Amino acid sequence: MTEAEAVVVGVRVRPFQEREIQNNSMLCISMSQKSTSIFDSAGKDTMFTFDESFWSHDGYEDDGTGYLRPKRGSNYVDQKYVFNTFGKRVLDNAWNGYHCCLFAYGQTGSGKSYSMVGYGNNKGIVPISCEEIFRRIANDDSGNSYEVLVSAIEIYNEAVQDLLIPVEQRPRKGFEIRESKILGVYIDGITKRPVESYKAIHDTIEEATTHRTVGSTLMNATSSRAHTVLIIEFKTVTSCSTRVSMINLVDLAGSEKVKQTGAEGERMKEGAMINKSLSTLGNCIEKLAEKSTNPKKAVLVPYRESKLTRLLQNALGGSSKTIMICALSPASSNYEETLSTLRYADRAKKIKNKAVVNENPQEKLMRELLDENQKLKEMIQSLGAGRVDARTFEDLGRKQREIAEAEAALKDMQKTFQEKLEEDRQRQGELRRRGTVVNPMVPMIVNLNQDPQLQGRVKHYFPAGKTLIGCNKQDESESESEASDLDRDSDEESDDLPVPDINMLGRGMQRLHASVENASDGRCILRALNGEAAQATCLNGMTLDRMLEMDAKKCPRTRVDDGFVLVHADRLIFGPCYFVFVQPNICSAEVLIASGEADFTTAQMEEMREKRSATEKRIRQSLYSPCMVLPGLEDAQHFEQMQEMQKELEQVKRTLQLKEQVLRAKEDEVEELRRELALLRNPGERLDEMLYAGHSKVSLAIDNTFEEALAQLSAVEAMLTSCAPRGDSPKKKSLTS
Ligand SMILES: Nc1ncnc2c1ncn2[C@@H]1O[C@H](COP(=O)(O)OP(=O)(O)OP(=O)(O)O)[C@@H](O)[C@H]1O
Fold first, then answer.
1. Are 213 and 169 contained in the same domain?
2. Where in this chain does the entry annotate a coiled-coil region (predicted)?
3. Residue 604: inside a domain, yes or no?
4. pLDDT tens-digit readout, 385-431
5. What are the pLDDT digits (tens) for 52-95?
6. 636-681 and 600-629 helices cross at what angle (nearest 10)?
7. Shared-domain flag, residues 643 and 726
8. 3-state SS string for 12-52
9. Which ligand 1 atom minimizes the distance to the CA of 106?
10. Which residues span the domain enclosing 523?
11. Is the minimum distance from the CB of 217 to ligand 1 under 6 angstroms?
């Protein structure tokens, strides 16, 4: 009989972030071998022991390529070490035919994605594992053959989405998680992409990431608000058997409490949904731990209460080998959250699973599926013979659906891997022809946001041809029943309109708002699709309707008919959404954003500046144009009009002055921040400045002291002079001279 095996749990603490250093954050975590301690503000510690405690807080250096490696003699744990400890274990298990699951838990910004996916050269467990899978396959000379299928999903607001299909082709309410006796828990209709090389799996993950960010815009989400799961189905075919194992790599959403993030409205709902998934996960872990400690006790595990736990049911309390990596913030300001993560991890390590090798499942599955088919036929026959009760009738409907699913699964199983590859190639070719598959080197717009954490998270690509930007209200979160009749009428009217390729919601957005044409000469041309849209679309602060009125020579951008040629780093505003245009062959979006060349404040300020000058122009026009039309100043009515307008002008001037003050203050603030940033980037200069400041203070002090001394001397001198006998006043040399 298979031995029960505990969930393997590791914790990892990251370095301080810039903000935490600036806030003089205190370190509240210490680690010694497998134990981790957390200290509260009074210095009292709570200790936990895990399978692994990874110290990644300090003791590292850049190896010259951006990769962070441990300094000589330090205990810093780098990405390779984490992969060798946890990632390799997952792969070994998969190779032996076990289902495996690795999930990362922790509050936002604690380092989950760093461990799972990694950044730049510091690749995480997911990419290294994918590389390793194909390296092992290439080095295998046993005669076995291998088949790898990849799925990528996101759970957001309790809806499961397939990240391998474009946003606009997804069902609005997401995909269904189903459970059947034969197939177990599975997602109905999810893409399983066959991959035969590291490049293919890498491109698939890139595609999923792109769809993830695009998808998140539609819902105002950020990556940390959704749970992402990469599912790798790994099949080994030997001469006498077939083994299938599923590898689930799960990057959970941030675990912070909604209260702490100050979330409101839609964000609050998101937070509640994430918390629902995470708190159900917590409850399941608690119940499973209870069950493992007391196997005889009847414990109900609430898997069905959230999509996440339903999906992870097998990984948590079934036949899977499971590893959990908990990311910790080192800062004392996050003490509460980190302590709660440690408690979560502590409970998880008590769970015990009984993993089994999934040998020959395909043949078994096919046999079972055929049996089910037979049973259904018999049921139908009995229905025809009139020997059926109500319960059987009800069952029949359910069975019919199950059989349809089973038959679809059977059909899929009967296809060879080569057939699946060929089918996928054709599908990809078709999508590429329609421009649906995204190449990260095509021009794009990237979002700008007040919150630097949210900046650069959303990318919209412009493949060759025309891309339509608009507001497809069907995607709006309000239910249709709440829409006004007027809205409904206008929606009906606009039903014939094409669906925009890029959807942006918010005030000022038109159903078909703008287009960007990626022309054959490589230029991208922006056009507003109607007058109202032109007023609500800005290029570097200026509305398109204003640019269209301008003399072509004065216009800041090259005009092509009614459109404008976009230039790398141009700021664009559509309704309430701020973006920057990126030509990836000039530099990547990440580099552009990090350079500070385009940011939210700049875009907002140039918009305000343009609005001000447009208003001034309008007032000037309305003030002076009547003079030309009306007969003369003696006309009383005209005089009144003039006075009215003068008042209006004064009012506008005052408003403008106020706005100008605000703008200046903001500009000063930005200037100050830029200066600070430059100093931080160049500490030498900072030191010089400090020395200079220190020097000035000292010389000022010396000057003051000197001045005071002189004053005292003059006073003494004056006293001496007044005290000296009048007659023989000597011709003294002044002490001050
Ligand atoms: N072990 C580490 N070594 C160096 N830097 C790290 C490490 N872990 C995390 N970081 C840095 O900390 C920051 C936050 O990490 P990360 O984005 O992985 O957090 P997260 O928990 O995934 O956040 P979110 O929930 O928002 O996705 C990043 O800048 C990352 O580079």
1. yes
2. 362-423, 598-683
3. no
4. 555 566 666 666 666 666 677 677 767 767 777 888 888 887 777 66
5. 999 999 999 999 888 999 999 999 999 999 999 999 999 998 88
6. 160
7. no
8. EECCCCHHHHHCCCCECEEEECCEEEEECCCCCEEEEECCE
9. 21
10. 445-478+497-594
11. no
